[in-house]
Structure formats: C-alpha cells, structure tokens
C-alpha cells in the first residue's frame, strides 16, 4: 500500500510539473557573431517565434506579448505553424494575435505544415494578408536598417530554393536571412542558396524534441525521428558559416505535452566580429 501511495504522489507531482512547465515561457538570447556583418547592422535584434499552434496555446496572452516587447526587437520572424491543423479558422483569434505582435516591430510570417494541412489554407492566407504582418511566400525582400540593406527570404512549407531570378537580386547583399519551417533541411538550404551571403536560417517544427533530457537533448521530433539533431538553439554547418536558429516552439500538437521543454521565445542579437 505504501508503494502505491508513493507512486500516486510521484505521478501527481510529475503531472503538476508538466502542467506548470507547459505554461512557462523560456526566453533565450542568442548572440550571433558574423564576420561580414556591416557596422550598421551590429546589435540588430531579431525575435524568433515559431509553432504557436494557437488552439493549443497555454501561455497567458498578456505576459506573452509583454515578453516579446521586453526583447526590444528590430524585427520579428514567425516561422510557421501559427495555427493547429484542427483549428476552426472562422473563430480563430490568430489574426488578432499576429496584429498584437506586429505592433511591436516589423513582423514577417511564413507557413508551416499545419497551415497547409488545416483544410482551409486559403482562409488562413487571407487572414495573414489582411494582418499587420508580412506574409512571405517563396519570395525575397530587401529591407533597410540604419541605412544598410539586408535581405529576407521566406519559404513555403518544405520548399528549399527559389527561382534564380529572385536570388540574383540578393547577390549584392552581405547579409541575408532565411525563414524556413523545417530545420532538418538545413543542408539543402545551404546548398541551394550557396551564391548568397546567408547569415542565418530561422526554423521551428521540431518542438524541441518534445521530451528533453540533460546532456542528450530532444528525444523525438517530426521528420527527424528519434534523437533529432536540430531541436533548439544555434547550429553550425560543416561547409558554411551560415547558422541555423531553431525555436522549440510555443505549443504542442498531436503529442499533448512537453517534458523538461518549456515554450521557447528566442532573441537573436547580431554582433560584428
């Protein structure tokens, strides 16, 4: 009987811990050194958000928005899965959430696999196009910060390249960022954009490996399977200086909870070296 009581207590504590951690935001700052960074872009701040899965979002909305404000971003990147595929877009508040984020700083959004499989993709797309954010759909844009131009590429779900004519317009830039939902395609992005000066690729999708263990990391993620390689933080590539920035995301999907894996808000600060 004692063993049963102890087991019940331990299971209850574990469930309470899981309930609590799934509602606590982990704000991480990543310092990103870059040898080719123009002086005008030194200390540029990018806040990276991914995998909101709004229907399953459990963080207090006001504190979430305040946490984004506290990062003092120059730009905000949202790398897909803003909604869950089960979401009712006729009643979804995703446009309102995106608008609240976009008030903080210029915001750029791409789709993920949940948008494309939600059954009402055109509705989601219209909500984004009518929002205060910029939806990027296999396109590249040039922005200016402190008088210095840089490029942003936004890819649709599982796309890894763009038309040569689009890439030609970016070749003169010393700093280019890519927004792409799938981190497991890191090498494909590097190969297909090899003519560009890519500083970083921003991704999500892996949900941090769902369950994270000390010294091991995530245990399982979509498209990477067991012991996934790219789940959280900053990664290097053996043939390129380009970094991969992976957000663990903010919510769950089919797997209903995270273990030792708090929702993740990433702030990237560029540093000239």
TrEMBL record:
<protein>
    <recommendedName>
        <fullName>Calcineurin-like phosphoesterase domain-containing protein</fullName>
    </recommendedName>
</protein>
<dbReference type="GO" id="GO:0046872">
    <property type="term" value="F:metal ion binding"/>
</dbReference>
<feature type="domain" description="Calcineurin-like phosphoesterase">
    <location>
        <begin position="44"/>
        <end position="208"/>
    </location>
</feature>
<dbReference type="GO" id="GO:0008758">
    <property type="term" value="F:UDP-2,3-diacylglucosamine hydrolase activity"/>
</dbReference>
<dbReference type="Pfam" id="PF00149">
    <property type="entry name" value="Metallophos"/>
</dbReference>
<dbReference type="GO" id="GO:0009245">
    <property type="term" value="P:lipid A biosynthetic process"/>
</dbReference>
<dbReference type="InterPro" id="IPR004843">
    <property type="entry name" value="Calcineurin-like_PHP"/>
</dbReference>
<keyword id="KW-0479">Metal-binding</keyword>
<keyword id="KW-0378">Hydrolase</keyword>
<dbReference type="InterPro" id="IPR051158">
    <property type="entry name" value="Metallophosphoesterase_sf"/>
</dbReference>
<dbReference type="InterPro" id="IPR029052">
    <property type="entry name" value="Metallo-depent_PP-like"/>
</dbReference>
<dbReference type="GO" id="GO:0016020">
    <property type="term" value="C:membrane"/>
</dbReference>
